[in-house]
Write a structure and sequence with these properties.
Distance between the termini: 13 Å
Mean pLDDT: 94
Order of helices and strands: HHHEHEEHEHHHEHEHEHEHHEH
Largest sheet: 7 strands, parallel
Oligomer: single chain
Number of strands: 9
Low-confidence stretches: 1-7
Strand order of the largest sheet: 1-4-5-6-7-8-9
């Protein structure tokens, strides 16, 4: 085993070196051209979804096959109105749900496996399992409980509840956590190697650290206690103010952005609780707008800090140049020589 191998092995000794890939969405236009699978058809067709997902490993040598390609899967299944976007614009929720009591929402979880695009994703999961190579892992992703709650009631109301009605928010997050658990376990049962929930709005820049500790942290602990393994989290923003709390939520690993104050310190905190660190090359200023040299410099900085899985710090923009993504793999390869 290479002496630089990850201290917290995220996939049961599958990798003998620090892997490269993405735990966040990756609907890259150049991968669509290479694979012949284009969104939005790839959001609805099992075969197209499989081809576009597998392209991450086939054409980039990523050690991840991350799918689906947007963060509105659970919201759609719960009944939210969704704009399904275009080739370079991912689906998004355009109207919150209308309901009287939060408890009513539990009925939206009935027969969840048959709702929205979930059947297509589960079929794609099974096909990916049959095609994926030994040098890669599949990651089924969905929005996290805070993001889903924002889709259900609207962001403004969610932020207001965070400050004024934490009990109501806690009840809503309980429903949303059940959606995350159900979806993740369905994907794992159908052959996914792992599941990842992405919770952009849980960022300390939107949810105060005290509210995170009192309301969001119990929700995350519920998810990790009821989910099959491995289960990961992506969270946006500078998570340094809540790094201790995050490290105690029970996830196998957490994907973080480049905005953390001190990545090395965050790695040390997470490793104390046997939590892997994923990230954290900027998807905007570096991967999308930067040069190959910029990617190399930032990727080395992440590797030097002791991350366990080299990856973009958030979702990859569709227009991101493939050469910049390939530079992540090349940097890792040279780093470990």
């Amino acid at each position: 085993m290479n002496k630089k191998q990850n201290r917290i092995n995220l996939f049961k000794n599958k990798f003998s070196r620090i892997p490269v890939g993405t735990f966040t969405t990756a609907p890259v236009l150049e991968l669509m051209e290479l694979s012949g699978a284009y969104r939005p058809k790839a959001d609805f067709s099992c075969d197209e979804m499989v081809k576009l997902a597998m392209a991450q490993n086939e054409y980039l040598d990523f050690e991840t096959v991350r799918y689906p390609f947007d963060m509105a899967v659970l919201a759609e299944a719960m009944g939210c109105k969704v704009d399904f976007g275009s080739m370079d614009r991912t689906p998004s929720v355009i109207e919150p749900l209308v309901f009287d009591e939060i408890d009513e929402l539990y009925s939206n979880l009935d027969n969840f496996e048959s709702k929205g695009r979930i059947p297509t994703i589960l079929d794609a999961t099974t096909k990916i399992k049959s095609q994926i190579k030994d040098d890669a892992v599949s990651i089924a992703g969905c929005e996290g409980p805070v993001d889903l709650a924002a889709s259900i009631i609207g962001l403004k109301k969610l932020l207001l509840w965070t400050l004024k009605e934490p009990e109501s928010l806690g009840k809503l997050l309980d429903v949303c956590s059940e959606a995350c658990i159900t979806f993740s376990n369905l994907c794992l049962d159908h052959g996914a190697d792992s599941a990842c929930i992405a919770d952009a709005i849980a960022s300390p820049q939107l949810v105060p650290p005290n509210s995170f500790k009192d309301v969001v942290m119990p929700t995350y602990k519920k998810i990790t206690s009821k989910s099959k393994r491995p289960i990961f989290l992506h969270i946006c923003g500078n998570v340094s103010p809540i790094k201790e709390e995050l490290s105690q939520c029970g996830f196998n690993g957490i994907s973080v952005e480049e905005s953390v104050d001190d990545l090395r310190e965050l790695v040390e905190t997470f490793h104390k609780n046997e939590v892997g660190v994923i990230g954290n090359v900027s998807p905007v200023t570096t991967l999308y707008s930067g040069t190959v040299d910029d990617v190399t410099t930032e990727a080395k900085r992440s590797l030097d800090s002791g991350i366990d899985f080299l990856a973009p710090g958030c979702g990859i923009a569709p227009q991101t140049p493939l050469k910049n993504l390939a530079a992540l793999v090349e940097t890792r390869n040279k780093y470990e020589e």
